[in-house]
Amino acid sequence: MNEQVSYTTEEIAKLLKVSKLTVYDLIKKGDLPAYRVGKQMRVDHYDLEAYKQKAKNGMIRENRENAGQLNMTATSLDSMLQTSSSSDVSEVSPLQPGVGNIPHIDYQDHTADAEATVTPEFVHAAYARPEEILRNTGTMNPITQDTITPPTSGRTIVITGQDTSLDILARYMEKEDSRYRPLRSFAGSMDSLVSMYMGNSDIVSTHLFDGDTGDYNLPYIRKILVSHPCTVINLASRRAGLYVAKGNPKGIRTWQDLAQNGVKIVNRERGAGARVLLDEQLRLNNIRTSQLQGYTQEESSHIAVAGKVASGQADVGVGSEKAAALVGVEFVPLTVERYDLVILNKTENAEWIATLKRILSSDEFKRELQAIGGYDLSRTGEVIYASEY
Asked: Which of 23, 182, 216, 225 is most exposed by smallest CB count within 10 Å?
């Protein structure tokens, strides 16, 4: 009977003896599968027990102590895999657009033996191949660790990014055409583009601000996906800005205010869109990172950043408006960011790209996003950029 039981986020927090913010963060990162019933998030009993078992076995991504097992070249793996401490978010090696430091991963020693019991290697989501993403998202028995053979039918489509809207999109794609099997991979905007460059993602989301042009995404896409014809489609727009405590006691209202004495910031991980937005604004306002107290303190989601502000561990953080409402901190809007999807223009992709466009333009999909709140859908489904096949 337990398999039919589901829990609210409040009940999960009580069972695990953690804060509700921690539960939201686990759901956001994909460690704890959840689904929405109306406006309420729920977690099935089986998924909770699977998470607990993985945690006991040291298999959750942030608890990996042996990340160096993969054979990698050109870039130290330590900078791309999350390490053993759940409180320390690993620093992902940043990609400088236009500089050829995109890492190469050698998977020759990382092929699953179909006849053996396999312990999954949790690699950074941006660099995970589809078979690794399958292991990361529940296609392994959480008790015996035996691999569960993926369906042989259906075209696997890897959707990379962190926003909840991508989970909804994956569900719609599977419902629209059973020939497609969407898989979710969680990574920041910069790492998502790198994942596509490396051939490990089919649809990636990005919200990267370029201070020189004032534009979002296209300057980075053109540099990272050089020689890769692609299409950029708008998913939504949303307000971005600063999280501050109730009443805004430090009077933080502009980017310049971040450099005030006595103001402590909490940052996002390298490669995240919010991190790029902050770094670009610091550059434009001639503020050195060394002037910001707490700049090196990193969290891996908007909710985690807002949570640090809510708990008083930081005075300010950068993120989207929706997380502020969830956590209960004040939000200072400073910009509207364009949240786009990127797909590679390949002949073999043409059919599912048409399906994707149809979903994005549908009233049903837009209504579901609208119900979540925090999105401007006026340009949803609009082709922002397209190069030749």
From this structure: 225
